[in-house]
Specification:
alpha+beta; about 140 residues; membrane; 4 strands; transmembrane helix; 3 helices; signal; LHPL6 protein; transmembrane
Length: about 140
């Protein structure tokens, strides 16, 4: 297997993959905010939540659903800002994953990644990281 990457490029490819994987796992996990409600431990992320209150119309009271799951629809995400955060963070994770997988393919295929392609990939990776980090920190 010939590679189109230098030693530094191979290290970049593997670190990129690890960072993209960590970003995607962080995006999909519902543990961004932790707290308690109705004496139960609750947590939620951009599009997943654990232990959330639901109105039980038959008993006319609010009960806690003690399971993790996605919101029923995009509109069920609590606020417009939270929806924007979901889209931007998801876009950032997608860009990071795209660059990382392309870089890993460059480890196996010769002449796949040139100097120009590497620079463009670095720019895309910067944009993906900026989207993931800024939205994840609420900026």
């Amino acid at each position: 297997m010939a590679s189109s990457l230098t030693c530094a490029g191979i290290v970049w490819a593997f670190l990129s993959f690890l960072c993209a994987a960590a970003s995607c796992v962080g995006f999909f996990m519902p543990y961004w905010l932790l707290g308690s409600q109705l004496e139960k431990s609750v947590s939620f992320g951009t599009f997943r939540r654990c232990s959330y209150p639901v109105r039980d119309e038959s008993r006319q009271m609010t009960v806690m659903v003690e399971q993790c799951g996605r919101y029923a629809s995009f509109q069920a995400i609590p606020s417009a800002e939270w929806r924007i955060c979901t889209v931007v963070t998801g876009l950032g994770c997608g860009l990071l994953l795209l660059v990382a997988l392309t870089a890993l393919m460059g480890c196996c295929v010769s002449e796949l990644i040139s100097r120009t392609v590497g620079r463009v990939a670095g720019g895309i990776q910067f944009l993906g990281g900026k989207c993931s980090c800024d939205e994840g920190m609420g900026m």
